[in-house]
């Protein structure tokens, strides 16, 4: 019985933690908080919650679409007023969005869009466009370094099937494919490392076991490129522009920005997850309270057909690395507001 | 009148019944949840829980059968994924009928489970290793079959598996029906008694002439079947099959079994217990969500509550392996 009592106490404590405020609640459903990128997104959402006086509750789906559906169901049952969702999968979360639609709760997709159900708008970056910019930057630096042709490039892809991975792969392809045909570059390896740092290390180490003749590595996120960086250093190879292996990341997480500063990465793409989270909650708040709607003339996000509120992107290189924090953490005015 | 001594004796007896604990915990959780959140006992939320618990409960039943037989199955999450994707790919890409693609998926699950069992008993590899190997293989094949992409958008008839009969979710009916049938089989057939005997003392069972190998193969095959069924139902629920589905679900299935009184040492426990264990896990997740407990604290709360439950449960066990 004493143990039963302990269970009871544990619950009451949880209850205490949870209660407290009675402000309108906006649920923010994150695909996984294991990735620092989404932690920053959640920080942005919370910052907006404080600014606008709404309670923001962050749910972590641990990259499990079934769990995310459960979380949305539970949150809707507990009376949340709006949903900002960063879906685990573009398709598998449709039932969750449809449920919210049925209950009249507005849905805003952030960073990744859902491909069904009604969303007020999609707040994020075009992964394809951003990946194209990253690949183009890598090519620019390879040209500046005056490497002999063909440039030998390794690509590290994200989780197979995840929409961000598919779109970034598309962006890389758009830039690389013509160059491959023209014989200017050669893809040494094009492998997945599941958006994961340890995987990035392992996969890169495996590639290095087959060849050390590599000019550049580009990864679909920073975790993988940082893992690859360690593997390259462990193999005793030189990294950095202009004489070492040139590394290009994606996402501009803090570790990667530091690596750009120290010259180990030539660049990374800053997607401003903080602004995505901030705008997500701001849009939800303004939608509920001020009757905000995406302004006339808002473009459509072609892959999903949603109204698209693009958040800023920046290519982070040694030239602008000091300004990046300010750029990506200062939300500009949400389109349609003053 | 009942004296205190008698009362204590009665509680002790009740405690010895291993289904008592999960039922008690369930009742306690239910009460606390009703008390701490006004949203818990709403019809929407109860319906949510009823459909949420099915996948975990079905996996837990298969897992419990294997654990009772003295083994462990680490492949259920991956078998869920491969069966689910086979089901989806057949329906979407090859326009196979619902029933045929369902049978194919269940067959894939049974085959994976059968392979687990046959290798364990014939080649005598520990089930831990064999099912881990199966998990990796099945996950890989799932990615191969789907090309790494999710398959989505099924016909309404298939999605009705995730619908309702009156107010009751079909998922709940399937899981509960399966639990009752399999429990009856284990309780009242010769096979059931052999399963417990095998897990309880394999050597003795062999010596008295039981076909221990066959019993184990059936247990693994059933676990594969359960995983496949869960995969199909997950498809209906999400209206999509994706190759990373079910990652880590084996651990939830094992936890549910153990919470429900299935002993790691084999030969002890029940299907209804595992089913209750899965319900407890589902309600736990549900409460933390409707209480809006912040993501990071959810892990902590879940861990502590699981440990507390396990501690309470450990009283009936003479020793732990």
Outline the structure in words:
The complex is a heterodimer of chains A (338) and B (321). Helix content of chain A is 45%, strand content 18%. Chain A is α/β, with parallel strands linked by helices and 338 residues long. In chain A, the strands form three sheets. In chain A, strands 2-1-3-4-5-12-11 form a seven-stranded mixed β-sheet, sandwiched between helices. In chain A, helix 2 links the parallel strand 1 (25-30) and strand 2. The mean pLDDT of chain A is 89. Chain B is mostly helical and 321 residues long. In chain B, 74% of the residues lie in helices and 2% in strands. Chain B has helices at 4-16, 20-36, 43-68, 76-93, 98-122, 127-146, 156-159, 170-188, 190-200, 202-207, 212-238, 249-259, 271-290, 295-313, and strands spanning 151-152, 164-165, 168-169, 240-241. In chain B, the strands form two sheets. Chain B has a two-stranded antiparallel ribbon. A two-stranded antiparallel ribbon of chain B has the order 2-3. The longest helix of chain B is centred in the last third of the chain and has 27 residues, at 212-238. Chains A and B meet through helix 1, strand 2 and helix 3 of A and helix 2, helix 3, helix 11, helix 13 and helix 14 of B.
